From TrEMBL:
Domain of life per record: Eukaryota
Protein name according to UniProt: histidinol-phosphate transaminase
Annotated pathway: Amino-acid biosynthesis; L-histidine biosynthesis; L-histidine from 5-phospho-alpha-D-ribose 1-diphosphate: step 7/9
Signal peptide: none
Record has Nucleotide-binding as a keyword: no
First-tier enzyme category under EC: transferase
Keyword match Transferase: yes
One MF annotation (Gene Ontology) recorded for this entry: histidinol-phosphate transaminase activity
The entry's keywords: Aminotransferase, Pyridoxal phosphate, Transferase
InterPro entries associated with the record: Aminotransferase_I/II_large, PyrdxlP-dep_Trfase, PyrdxlP-dep_Trfase_major, PyrdxlP-dep_Trfase_small
Length: 331
């Protein structure tokens, strides 16, 4: 039998049995300065150029191992599968606003003067309107194209491959998915039976695992539980970036913590129009410390939202006091 011993050298080799004694291995070993002994084995060095390339050869290895995120099905697909008209289908799988946006949004869409020009990359007009609506200065607000983009942006700016985040299931699954895409590890701290946070275990996980950030949802998806001020303050005192997702805050009866970003530099608050105003095709926004805003704005896609989105959301901000009465009356 043939035996190959190679030391002090790292490469890709192929060894195969040969019918005749060939000094190929020993000659190549001396040339490369390694120890190679063989009498009946032909050792061939294979270069990367000789390797067979496939489509997934260009994909990062850790991404090839991920299971794809399961998206929701649009009306058109459901209509075909169920044999029903789209208007006869009520979707409950994505917590979408069933009434849609108020009429002012459609008026704003019809009044666009330059729909063929890229929108303002910094969404100045939109952020100014949101500043009035939220009571925060525009410098604290960053607009994005939906929650997924902003969650991914946070992770790309904060996490290095191999870093950790804390997740508290059951909750919104995009935190775990985006962490995996960005090469981060997820430290799971399950919620209590009543779906409240286990603050003691969170603090223990932060101390032992040294995560970069923790993602919290209040009201939580899917159960609607609220994070109390006392628990949130305890978590904010930990050495970790706290991302508070308030997608459903308008339905909770409590005040948003978005103004807390002025006091806590390790706090980011996510807000959305998808639930509040029935506009899933337009952007989400976050409130963030001013210094962090500079870095996040630097790495956000400059042309990430279209002009109609900015106009629609400005229209919403200016008519928000009558949003629900307008929506219910119009539909």
């Amino acid at each position: 039998m043939g035996v190959v011993e190679i030391s002090s050298f790292s490469a890709l080799w192929s060894a195969k049995l040969s019918g005749a004694r060939q000094p190929v291995c020993s000659l190549e070993g001396r040339r490369r300065g390694v120890v190679a002994m063989a009498s009946t084995v032909d050792v061939q060095h294979l270069s990367e150029a000789n390797r067979e390339l496939t489509g997934d050869s260009f994909i990062r290895p850790h991404l090839r191992k991920l299971s794809p995120y399961q998206p929701i099905l649009p009306f058109e697909v459901l209509s075909t599968r169920l044999g029903r008209k789209p208007e006869d289908i009520i979707k409950l799988d994505a917590n979408e606003n069933p009434y849609g946006p108020p009429p002012e949004v459609f008026e704003a869409l019809g009044s666009m003067k330059f729909p063929y020009v890229y929108p303002d990359p910094e969404s100045r007009r939109l952020r100014a309107a949101l500043a009035v609506d939220s009571g925060l200065e525009a410098d604290y607000i960053l607009a994005g194209c939906g929650a997924d983009e902003l969650i991914d942006l946070i992770m790309r700016c904060v996490l290095d491959p191999g870093d950790k985040i804390v997740d508290c299931p059951p909750t919104f699954t995009m935190y775990e998915f985006d962490a995996a895409v960005n090469g981060a590890h997820v430290v799971k701290v399950p919620r209590k039976p009543d779906f409240s946070l286990n603050v003691e275990l969170i603090a223990d996980a932060v101390e032992k695992e040294n995560p970069k950030c923790i993602f919290l949802t209040s009201p939580n998806n899917p159960d609607g539980s609220i994070i109390g001020d006392e628990d949130l303050i305890k978590i904010l005192k930990l050495p970790v970036l706290v991302v508070l997702d308030e997608a459903y805050i308008e339905f909770s009866g409590i005040e948003s913590r978005m103004k807390w970003v002025k006091k806590y530099e390790n706090l980011i608050v996510l807000r959305t129009f998808s639930k509040r105003a029935g506009k899933h095709t337009v952007s989400q926004f976050l409130e963030i410390d001013r210094l962090c805003w500079c870095y996040f704005d630097l790495f956000e896609e400059p042309l990430n939202s279209w002009m109609s989105a900015n106009l629609c959301q400005c229209s919403f901000s200016w008519t928000s006091s009558g949003l629900w009465s307008i929506s219910l009356e119009h539909y």
